[in-house]
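The instructor's notes for this session suggest beginning with a concrete chain rather than abstract definitions. Hand out the sequence below and ask the class to guess, before any prediction is shown, which regions might be ordered.
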Amino acid sequence: MRLHNQVEEEIAAFEAGELDPAAFPHREHVRLGYELLLRYSFAEAAVKMSAGVARLAAKAGHPEIYHETITIAFLAAIAERMAGGTYTDWPKFIAANRELLARSYIERWYSKEELASSFARASFLLPQPRFREE
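After discussion, reveal the predicted structure:
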């Protein structure tokens, strides 16, 4: 279990663009989103997450890989799960919400074509209604 001070230092390093992008896979994105949402409102966490992930992409030498819709959609999914349950720490949260670890998780709301668009990459794209014929 991570100590509170370690997490605070990690958040500060994330915000300063000091984390190693190679040591920040999807699971770490989800975990850091969870930690930010424990400390900030959704709006504040979204600003911090968006800026931090964009800095990581730039630090990795690929600023073009930053994706606003994926970042915000995952943060919203994490926030929704946090609001709907009682979790005392990250291990309990992720054990109950393992599907968030699948990068394809948000494809239930977005098509691959939508996510591939330059608009979705640069700006948050609201999910489009999905109608099914009964």
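Then share the key points. Residues 94 and 100 are 8 Å apart (CA to CA). The chain is about 60% helix and 0% strand.
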